[in-house]
Design brief:
The active site is at 352, 472, 474, 671. Residues 115-273 form the Protein-arginine deiminase (PAD) central domain. Residues 282-686 form the Protein-arginine deiminase C-terminal domain. 14% of the residues lie in helices and 35% in strands. It has 10 helices and 46 strands. Strands 2, 4, 6, 8, 9, 11, 13, 14 and 16 form a 9-stranded mixed β-sheet that branches. The two termini are 30 Å apart.
Amino acid sequence: MASQRAVRLSLKKPTHAVCVVGVETFVDVRSDVPKGAKTFRVSGSSGVHIFIVYDPTRVTVPTDKDHWPLDTTVDLTLSVDTASKALDDLKVKVSYFGQSEDHALGCSELYLTGVDISLDVDTARKGKAKRSQGDKKTWRWGPAGYGAILLVNCDRDDLRSRGLDLENSQLTSLEDLKDMSPMVLTCDGPDKLFDSHKLVLNVPFSDSKRVGVFCARGGNSLSHYKQVLGPQHLSYEVERQPGEQKINFFVEGLTFPNSDFSGLVSLSVSLVDMGTPPEVPIFTDTVAFRMAPWIMTPNTQPPLELYVCSVIDAHGSNEKFLKDMSDLVSKAKCKLIICPWVENRNDRWIQDEMEFGYVEAPHKSFPVVFDSPRDRGLKEFSYNRILGPDFGYVTQEIPFAGASGLDSFGNLDVSPPVTVGGKEYPLGRILIGSSFPKTGGRRMAKVVRDFLQAQQVQAPVELYSDWLSVGHVDEFLTFVPTSDQKGFRLLLASPSACLKLFQEKKEEGHGKAVQFDGLEEKVKRSINELLADRSLRSDSLYVQKCIDWNRQVLKRELGLTERDIVDIPQLFYLRGPHAEAFFPDMWGSWAQQVGQVAATSRAVISSAADKQVNMVVLGKYLGIPKPYGPIINGRCCLEEKVRSLLEPLGLHCVFIDDYLSYHKLLGEIHCGTNVRRQPFSFKWWHMVP
């Protein structure tokens, strides 16, 4: 139990004190004693627990266990179990004795009033605020951990209101209370006690901009709920009504963890004695919360919704592509959401614009879209169309500068759950592209990197992507789910695998088969010509070295072995210092920066062909850009190779023509789609970062 202030006894007059239920009160029995006193004896009302605290190595227990020596090694503490019904209804008497223990030399009287004061939250993480006798001031990670959790109230439950719910100091919807964490103040005691004492809720100044507290007075009217703590209110004198024993509060998070905020906040209540100035807090109870982090979901999580844009180009609309996406989501049993042209302004690169994640507390979870700093044609879409009831929104603004290509969220991915050298990452690890191992070069903006790092639960790994024209990690890697014990595979672009495949086909007598067969606008090049192109071979081998550097980082940081990696055939060529894919990327290569029209094209320099690895993963169904590889025995040899690598893993490869609407503008299927996925079943607070 916590220690309370000392109560000093007097021989001349009774002493009056308040005793908080469950909290020990120290009683000073030595400051005012009769002359010649050697021992003391204590008696009290049935509702008072009396404790004699002593050092057994220095004090001999009295034979009658009654008369204790007035020694500095002997102390008296008291506690009560229940609140009093009236003032001073509990009594403690301390009698003092000299050499003779038959007659007392004097006595002191202490009148106690029991009061039950406790601030309680969902410390046990069960979804409800319950009385806790444990440590409420600290927060612990892990399956045996404890401490309450706050959701950042970043959705908009009332569509008639403006902004996020957290921006409103007044409640706009009763549904908003469900996004908040419960907190209960127990304040049981005689009503007359509160004529001379008050209860004050406090939030530290440093936490006041991080948390908001609403006081609930019942009823179904918004007027019954008012914000009492927050950015404009550091303290609140509780308005206790006569006979009131419990007061309910609702607590909301206002900011996500970040470089200047660990995620921890605290609230406290103090019982303040107003009897004599200055006012003195005689008891304080403190509770701790941690802000729920924003969590990304990897490709291995089941898909819920696929987002894609409707656009119009010189050749017409992407209606055929939308139909192919509709067929794909039907197979995967998820929902298709089409962003109309009027809302995307012909900006089709929806993967670059946003990333879906979620937040979770024991009482509730909801999705949160992370809006990238990219800000092109789609810049208002996530705020205007996705933000809503139980769908949150967060963004990070880059100060003093605009966004670079690496700030687009094609440069943001997350691995499935992994274990690395005994260290578990049950929610996977975030992957971002950077200029490593070079000095200088391009990096994702610091404010975005800091935000991702501060969430703590998906420790980011920086990869080397600055060798690419666009510089996004999904240009050379992706993850797919598998039905075996591992549960996933990492797919890596591989120029070496492609050159090997073409060499095999040449040796089989198919050297005259041509790349881009079936594309009228492309110059056809045979396998023989591709293999004889020293420049293309040299460029691709350079790229292989860059990918191999990342391969080693990924193996080390994700605990992978070669068995966990699948090499997907892909050629690259260099334009200046950067590389681009030679043909449709079957998983994730996009070159998107500043093309013909900012909202339409994805890069300054065009690539020679599609990028085959830029696939969309919907469960076991993979929507893969059609690579238009050499036709051998009536089949595309690149498609056949990819099928042979992935279909034995239980995956279904669906090759989709995205050439006109996406590839010619230097993007692919993954660039032009975005998937919201099912949250993890694992509870983030059970892990230890």
